[in-house]
Amino acid sequence: MSDTYLVIGAGGAQGGAVARRLLRDGHRVRGFGRTAAGPSGIEWAQGDLTDREAVRAAFDGVRRASVTLPMEFDPAVVARFVDNIVAASGGLERLVFNTGNRVPASATGIAAFESKRDAAAAMLSCGVPAVVLRPPVYLDNLAAPWAREALAGGVLPYPLPEDRRVAWLPHDDLGALTAAALDRADLAGTAIDMGGKEEVTGPELASAFAGVLGREIRYVPVDPAAFEERLAPVLGAEVAAGVASTYRWLATPEGAGLYEGDAGKVEALLGVGLTPLRTWIERHAGGAA
After folding, report:
1. Which of 194, 128, 204, 176 is nearest to 19 (CA)?
2. What's the predicted TM-score (pTM) here?
3. N- or C-end of the chain: fewer Cβ atoms within 10 A?
4. Average pLDDT over residues 9-33
């Protein structure tokens, strides 16, 4: 087999970060997705995860694969994605699945969580050496145009209660952690909660932005219904509703602690130095008006 690494979802923000890191590390990268819109330097096997033959062709000649599923919360559709991936993955040396979100310890009845729980279980039991990575929320969400516009007005809005401690993770760190997991045979069969360098409340996060931007920034919890309304024109009504359902659950007492993290444990386990919060802000939000 060649040393080509397959990145399912390379056209998205998360998969794109993985592809960029693998390219930086000198690997050949094949992207798979509906559109060939990922980082330059990768080869493309364009297709849809519902197409078993297209998925099989994407895995041809691949040693290791990173999987990030599309933002789809219909359990039947997600199960079809996973079935096609599992059917094509025989013979891999390593499969790393990014759930795209943390998965609560107990069942929630929320499709956006439970479809990922089922997908992770299927990946770990498919007979291929697999690792599951479970991130919290991404810092890069705060570099989106709507967030930068709010920051320009002195507000940092997000649909999480202000007292929730969150280990915000940068996309670049996701790429580095995934690349590390792809090279670690000893981690096969494990699920790892990833997180960023620092764990902060909403006001602490706003204070970090204020320190870089040099002006007052106030954290404002956003109602999940308002967040859903904002997302719908961009992601579509069904996906926006699925995302909002997770934030509604996170605001309940059961949701407390889900996005916390242990940076030292993650760094030691995967051998990756995580990006300090202030460093990320300087790189991505320092120019906010």
Report:
1. 176
2. 0.95
3. C
4. 96
DSSP letter for 200, please.
Answer: B
Residue 273 DSSP SS3: coil
Residue 31 near residue 38 (C-beta atoms within 8 A): yes
Cα–Cα nearest to 43, from 87, 5, 85, 98:
5
DSSP 59-109: HTT-SEEEEE--S---HHHHHHHHHHHHHH-TT-SEEEEE-SS---SS--S
Say whether 136 sits in a helix, a strand or coil. Answer: coil
CA 118 to chain centre: 17
pLDDT class of 2 with cuts at 50, 70, 90: very low
Any idea which residue has 């051998």 for tokens?
Answer: 271
Q: Cα separation of 243 and 247, whole Å?
A: 7
Tokens of 34: 């509906």
Burial of 287 (0-12, 13-18, 19+ CB in 10 A): exposed
In the chain, what are the domain boundaries?
A: 4-137+169-195+261-274
Determine the topology of domain 4-137+169-195+261-274 in CATH.
Rossmann fold (3.40.50)
